[in-house]
């Protein structure tokens, strides 16, 4: 048992393995994700260290049923099983946490011996060894957690300071200049190349500790982050604004940064097209025109597997849910229905997987990028900056109508021409008490008429509200008036 990594081909196969009850470590990965590849090497070494456990690998996008079952929305992602039950998970590239979580689940190499950190095994690799030992020394424990302490320890501060100061112009980004992993990182790379400055980069997707630590170090919650001579300039929006105003060039000049182009960074130019698209993609003019038309067919456009009401993979489903939570209208295209578009868009966007989300023609990224942007609040900000307004739901509309006046009456007809006796009685009662009120004729809008019945859990009209709270219908209003309580109720 164990000693190697096995690729899982179906959910039925996985269920059979889990039914056997042996310790199992499951790695969800994607061939296009560099962090997945790096973690897969650690994963393979650990399978040799712990031969009594089963190490299984799943191509997340190729096995949507399994990915959905374990709520996988980003890779790399690990699930740990004992006795057929999920006991732990790990998201992101953190080799030290993976090693220790494996040790905890898989137990010792030899029966009868206590479980030890995987870093003490024979094949985990020098990088994992050094990382685990160093972190264990800093934290006074061999158990290294995935979360950073509330403050940054001195060693991490020193590491981050060294990284920030490693180049006069330093960019912390998703991916590399040759292969950016988000549209914002790509845009800043393009700007720096246009400014003709040499710059260093760090791919924050490869090191979760640096990624999370830098947010606290710089007090800036998102990426990319651009530094000049150790000072934070900002993210993509600030870099773009400074570039367009000419201020960025002035900052570089004031700090003695060479902008002559003689010492330009060694990075391939992704081109000047939208979303970093190369002008020379090798795609036919007809296909290029079609792709551009599809991308711009909606202000927010999602290329996905399946349709919004029937996604065909967990990653696509997750992005659909996020866009629905953001309350924005979006168009979609099922890339499973058109192989030419599916393959062509990978080349056009220089993005090798799906889903792909575009806002006003600019590539934002895939599910992991969109998920992180939503968690940080960046997606809401970007949508607002791009002029994408939230669509008003019926619930939103009803709340606005109900609170549009302190006293609000939903009736049949209007106060001067009621269309039913009950509405007429309530209007008369309010006027007799000298109460000012707003009104809405529910006969003019079927959506409001039916929606308000559900919203208020009150099946008939009229309905009277005070400061957003339902008072009741005709009978209750008449009773309040007869008891001399109506005016006081509506003025509390």
TrEMBL record:
Residues 1-107 form the Thioredoxin domain. One of its GO terms (biological process) is intracellular iron ion homeostasis. GO terms for molecular function: iron-sulfur cluster binding; metal ion binding. Residues 259-282 are annotated as: Disordered. Keywords: Iron, Iron-sulfur, Metal-binding. One of its GO terms (cellular component) is nucleus. Pfam families: Glutaredoxin (PF00462), Thioredoxin (PF00085). Belongs to the glutaredoxin family. CGFS subfamily. This is Thioredoxin domain-containing protein. It comes from Liquidambar formosana. The lineage of its organism: Eukaryota, Viridiplantae, Streptophyta, Embryophyta, Tracheophyta.
């Amino acid at each position: 048992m164990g000693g190697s990594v096995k690729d899982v081909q179906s959910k039925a196969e996985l269920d059979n393995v889990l039914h056997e009850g042996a310790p199992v470590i499951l790695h969800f990965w994607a061939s296009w994700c560099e962090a997945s590849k790096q973690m897969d090497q650690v994963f393979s070494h650990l399978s040799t260290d712990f031969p009594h456990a089963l190490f299984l690998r799943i191509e997340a996008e190729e096995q949507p049923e399994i990915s959905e079952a374990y709520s996988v929305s980003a890779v790399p992602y690990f699930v740990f099983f004992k006795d057929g039950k999920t006991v732990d998970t790990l998201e992101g590239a953190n080799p030290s946490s993976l090693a220790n979580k494996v040790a905890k689940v898989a137990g010792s190499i030899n029966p009868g011996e206590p479980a030890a950190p995987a870093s003490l095994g024979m094949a985990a690799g020098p990088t994992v060894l050094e990382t685990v030992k160093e972190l264990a020394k800093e934290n006074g424990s061999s158990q290294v957690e995935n979360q950073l302490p509330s403050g940054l320890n001195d060693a991490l501060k020193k590491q981050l300071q060294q990284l920030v100061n490693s180049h006069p112009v330093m960019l912390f980004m998703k991916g590399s200049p040759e292969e950016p992993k988000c549209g914002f990182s790509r845009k800043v790379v393009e700007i720096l190349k246009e400014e003709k400055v040499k710059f260093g980069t760090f791919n924050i997707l490869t090191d979760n500790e640096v990624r999370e630590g830098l947010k606290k170090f710089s007090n800036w919650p998102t990426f990319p982050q651009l530094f000049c001579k150790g000072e934070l300039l900002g993210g993509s929006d600030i870099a773009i604004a400074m570039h367009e105003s000419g201020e960025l060039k002035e900052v570089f000049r004031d700090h003695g940064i060479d902008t002559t182009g003689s010492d330009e960074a060694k990075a391939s130019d992704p081109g000047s097209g939208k979303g970093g698209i190369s002008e020379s993609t090798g795609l036919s003019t007809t296909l290029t025109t079609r792709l551009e038309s599809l991308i711009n067919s909606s202000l927010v456009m999602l290329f996905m597997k399946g349709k919004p009401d029937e996604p065909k993979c967990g990653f696509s489903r997750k992005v659909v849910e996020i866009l629905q939570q953001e309350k924005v209208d979006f168009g979609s295209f099922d890339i499973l229905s058109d192989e030419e578009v599916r393959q062509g868009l990978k080349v056009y966007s220089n993005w090798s997987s799906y889903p792909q989300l575009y806002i006003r023609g600019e590539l934002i990224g895939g599910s992991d990028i969109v998920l992180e942007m939503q968690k940080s609040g960046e997606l809401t900000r970007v949508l607002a900056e791009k002029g994408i307004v939230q669509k008003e739901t019926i619930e939103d509309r009803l709340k606005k109508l109900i609170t549009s006046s302190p006293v609000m009456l939903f009736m049949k007809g209007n106060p001067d021409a009621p269309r039913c006796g009950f509405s007429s009685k309530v209007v008369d009662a309010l006027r007799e008490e000298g109460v000012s009120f707003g009104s809405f004729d529910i006969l003019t809008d079927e959506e409001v008429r039916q929606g308000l019945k559900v919203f208020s859990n009150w099946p008939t009209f009229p309905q009277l509200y005070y400061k957003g709270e339902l008072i009741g219908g005709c009978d209750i209003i008449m009773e309040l008036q007869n008891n001399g309580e109506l005016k006081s109720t509506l003025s509390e």
